Amino acid sequence: MALSELITLFIFIFVLAKASEVVVDNASKLAKFFKVRMLAVGMLLVAVSTSLPELAVSVASSSAGQGAIAAGNVFGSNIANILLILGTAAFLYGFKVGRETLEDLALVLLFTTVISVYIIFHSYIFGQALGFYEGILLLLIAVWYAFRMLNKKTRHEHEEGKEISRHEGLMAFLFFFGGVIAVIISSSFVVDSSVKLADILGLSKSFIGATLIAMGTSLPELTIDLQAIRKKHYGLALGDAIGSNMANLTLVLGTAAAISPIVVQLQVFIAALLFAVIANMVFLYIATVNRKFERKDGVAMGLLYLLYIIIIFYLQFGDIPLVAG
Q1: Strands, E, within the chain: which ranges?
Q2: Domains of the chain (ranges, CATH numbers)
Q3: pLDDT tens track of the chain, all 325 residues?
């Protein structure tokens, strides 16, 4: 039984890696075809695509009157995107942050931080739910952000390599979305096999939930971003990780709030909300001061994520519901 789950796990990890490579290669072609920066492709096309599972969960949760699940999923995922995914990328490969890229990332990080802080004060001071109007506002921010990224073209990045024909562009588009679907499906199988294997080994459900499932929901972003950085497509990787955070806070949370009011209990989400802000600030500090992420930065980000896991374990055993993405 354990052997079969282990074989299944390794098979889908292999499929996941190959599918991620297909996504990265065709995202690069799409950037050339549309003559936009890799950062824009990462922040919009890749980020929104990899956020589709979160969007589906949030819509289902809000429709069932469980909007708090959507909120917990969003903040947990955002923490993992920066500390776990970019931290792992920094530890394994290291990457640079260009000036133009930093300007765009700084703006997005500012927005995600402000939105997170607003939710804290909105819930704590006014004691109100995130309702329809707040949801529409978040969706409008998502639309503005998408138009801004699409309209800001670069003068040099799309000139590299041969021109992409319309037929090649169409094929790249089809292979890109096929790869994204394969990444999402294989990720779910990896998580499912990991949980079954952990259950066979006698690991506790709380441990499985806070580690394997929480980290497993970030597998699409993790594998795609590692492939992108390995191929030196830094803008694509950074755009996906940071863009996913923006998509989660505006598109995902906005849709959930517009469907059904979200009551955010501060004592439940305080760790996730605060760590979401801290993660943004840590990333922005390293990117601004060093302009590159090295192995030591990856270690620091990984340790910070471990601290988050420890804290939510403490909250779990203190009879406060677990918050993880």
Answers
A1: 95-96, 292-293
A2: 35-156+201-317 (1.20.1420.30)
A3: 678 877 887 888 788 878 888 888 888 888 888 777 788 888 888 888 878 777 776 777 677 776 666 677 778 888 888 999 999 999 998 888 777 777 777 778 877 778 877 776 776 677 667 788 888 988 998 888 888 777 765 544 444 556 788 888 899 999 999 988 888 888 778 777 777 777 787 765 545 544 565 566 677 888 888 888 888 888 888 888 988 888 888 888 888 888 888 776 666 577 788 888 899 889 888 888 888 889 999 999 999 999 988 887 777 656 444 444 4
CB 289 within 8 A of CB 282: no
Length of the chain: 325
> How many angstroms separate the Cα of 116 from the Cα of each of 73, 120, 271, 274?
14, 6, 12, 8
The answer to pTM > 0.85 is no
Read off the tokens for 30.
């799409």
Place of tokens 């994204």: 180
Distances (CA, A) of 98 to 155, 187, 227: 15, 31, 19
Quote the Cα angle for 263-210-6, to 5°.
140
Max alpha carbon distance in the chain (Å)? 59
Contact 57, 252 (CB under 8 A): no
The CA–CA distances, whole Å, from 255 to 120, 133, 137, 248 equal: 19, 11, 10, 10
